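User: Is it possible to get a 3D structure for a protein together with its bound compound? The compound here is 4'-deoxy-4'-aminopyridoxal-5'-phosphate. I've pasted both below.
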Amino acid sequence: MTGIDDLPVRDELRGKSPYGAPQLDVPVRLNTNENPYPLPDALVERIVERVREAARNLNRYPDRDAVELRTELAKYLTKTGKYAVGLQNVWAANGSNEVIQQLLQTFGGPGRTAIGFEPSYSMHGLISRGTGTGWISGPRNEDFTIDRAASERAIAENRPDVVFITTPNNPTGNAVPAETVLALYEAAQAAKPSMVVVDEAYIEFSHGESLLPLLEGRPNLVVSRTMSKAFGAAGLRLGYLAAHPAVVDAVQLVRLPYHLSAVAQATALAALEHTDTLLKYVEQLKTERDRLVLELRAIGFDVTESDANFVQFGRFDGENGSHEAWQKILDRGVLVRDNGVPGWLRVSAGTPAENDAFLDAVRELKKEQS
Ligand code: PMP
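Assistant: Yes, that's possible. Here is the predicted structure of the complex:
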């Protein structure tokens, strides 16, 4: 049987595995930080209307520059981010994964490197590899906060071209203070200069605020966002960034022509019309997230502070401890995430009923262990 390694694939892809959160058919799925609430009926109707209009014109290529969509995204950011941005500051693509890919194609690539502070979002490293960008795994403290001095040193020593800072961080859940981001930005500029990408995929769930205002006077800073989490639209595949207009011009050097389909643009515009309703679900999820933190601690787990729509909990001793716990929770019908952080698992905040099912499962697990 011919396998991947029998093909003339690029050397850096040999022996590697694809990104693969299991998609299993179980009653309670709390493993990919999705929003558990289906879109409200009024929004579904509006999507149908907008897509019907778009469908009439599918013989034509979509608006290549997604002007209407970027304008509406800019309005959303301005309204919620305490910083005014316009069309020229915003770029959109198929999920923030594609935004990150375009940034790495533009500012990384062969002979260049990117750094992230791990554990963090694994796709930063995987997309780096996919774009031929060398990946550097930067340090983090035992409690998963970023060690500022050690990170500054790592940037000074490695002189990366791209620096990823995920806040709130995935899979750990904790936010990065603005002062740390500023210090790392300064370190990155002194070392190279390089682009600093602040991945705010979960920012709407934070107790704190977006770092958008840091864009002022910092042309090498990028804030990346997504409609997959707060807008409850993971299936839509719509991510975006805010940055200096020169960054928006630069990523257009690598984007595929017409990368954002007319159907996706129409759907995203419909969702943006319903922002207020969707953000109410975010408030419910924040309450549920805080409840998960409290209850998990009451059960006796260690829990990392969370500013996201998920919670990291542990600890599970032994070489395979977290994986065995993951399996036992799955045996009780609840799918959580084993991100490969030794001793820890991650659970996404679901509906109150889903969270109750999860808490029952881990309560039983704890009893079994003690
Ligand atoms: N950034 C972070 C930190 C994430 O956790 C995710 C999704 N899990 C993404 C980006 C990508 O999201 P999407 O491509 O759905 O916008």
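The chain has two domains: 21-38+276-369, 41-273. The chain has a mean pLDDT of 96.
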